[in-house]
Amino acid sequence: MSDDRYSDNPFVHNARPTPKRQPRPGEEVWRLRNDAGRVQSCELRDDSRSGAGWDLCVLEDGEILFSRRCANREQARLLAGYAADDMRRTGWT
Q1: Phi, psi of 81 (to 5 degrees)
Q2: What is this structure's pTM?
Q3: DSSP 8-state class, residue 49
Q4: pLDDT (tens digit per residue) in 2-41
């Protein structure tokens, strides 16, 4: 019997805990600030190798507010531009 307190079998109650998922940063497309000092940014993440396309993420203080899946990089950049235009219209700079 081993002194190891965890089992290698993932289906038992004392299985090794899975490591926390490490978020990978994307390509930042824009960063805007409003009068209250809030900062939002937009990142594009390439998930095309897994067949999932591109992910457009809008973040505030590093936390995802929302994301939108896009078929390709061009579509993601286009939508990121539209989002920035909308925010600038409402006072973000």
Answers
A1: -65, -40
A2: 0.72
A3: G
A4: 545 656 666 667 767 777 766 677 899 999 999 999 999 9
Distance, CA of 74 to CA of 68 (rounded, Å): 13
Structural domain boundaries of the chain?
27-89
Which one-letter amino acid corresponds to residue 27? E
Handedness of CA 23, 28, 32, 33 (dihedral sign): positive
Closest among 69, 89, 85, 72 to 30, alpha carbons compared: 85
User: 10 Å Cβ neighbour count for 29?
Assistant: 19
Structure tokens at 93: 């700079």
Distance linking the first and last C-alpha atoms of the chain? 64
Residues 6+ apart with CB under 8 A from 76: 44, 53, 54, 55, 56, 68, 70
